[in-house]
Amino acid sequence: MKSILYKYMSKFTSLTEEQQKTIANEIKIDEFKKGTILLRQGDVPTKCYFVLKGCIRQYSVNEEGKEVTSNFYTEEQAIAVFNNHKLDKSSEYTFTCLEDSVLVKGELDTEQDMYTKYTQLEIMTRKMIEENFGKVQEEFATFIASTPEERFKTLLLKRPQLIGRVPQHQLASYLGITPESLSRIKKRVEIDHS
Fold first, then answer.
1. Strand boundaries in 54-167, DSSP class E
2. What strands lie across the sheet with 56-61, from one edge to the other?
3. pLDDT tens by residue, 179-191
4. Bridge partners of 61?
5. DSSP, res 109
């Protein structure tokens, strides 16, 4: 699993192999069982994660009590809650493991110590956040302007692995449609591709 971490580090920084090993040895890697809740909506986050293996669902429960899925995190994706703009610092989302998962786990209260000790790690994190933020902005703009069928086709193009890994009702929620609509769209898209 650390080889995935090394690969990701070298994508964003010019760390030597020795520096990568030193940092990796200080990073905590944990295994989480399917169904584990990493953070509950309303709790104040104290940790951040990086997915080495598995699938994590991000969702919230709205005022009507309905779960609304806003993202899925899979291999080589970072999970962090940016809520410093909020007075109470609580999370608007719940994060739960949809599969048995292996995650790098970081403690937010020691994050600055790690950055001070390893300046390249701070540079890597900043570059990773900038890249991710750009993708999120682009995906959100595309999502808003798309029809449900276009959203599904984009998902097939950019994240096809989610189709077999995520329950259909959660995938439908993520796409902003009902499970029945998703079934109809899947059938139409299959027919179009035959």
1. 56-61, 67-73, 78-79, 94-97, 101-107
2. 37-39, 94-97, 56-61, 67-73
3. 999 999 999 887 6
4. 67
5. G
User: What tokens appear for 82 in the block?
Assistant: 């940016």
- What is the widest separation between alpha-carbon atoms in the chain? 56
Residue 168: partners with Cβ closer than 8 Å, 6 or more residues away: 179, 182, 183
Inter-CA distances, 174 with 13, 64, 140, 156, 157, Å: 33, 17, 12, 13, 16
Spell out the residues 6+ positions from residue 102 whose beta carbon is closer than 8 angstroms to its own: 1, 29, 30, 31, 32, 51, 52, 53, 54
Give the contacts of 9 (CB within 8 A, at least 6 positions apart).
Answer: 15, 20, 23, 24, 124
The pLDDT tens digits for 44-58 are 999 989 899 999 999
Q: For the purposes of burial, counting CB atoms within 10 Å of the CB of 154, is it exposed (0-12), middle (13-18) or buried (19 or more)?
A: middle
Measured between alpha carbons, how far is 7 from 45 in angstroms, rounded to an integer?
27
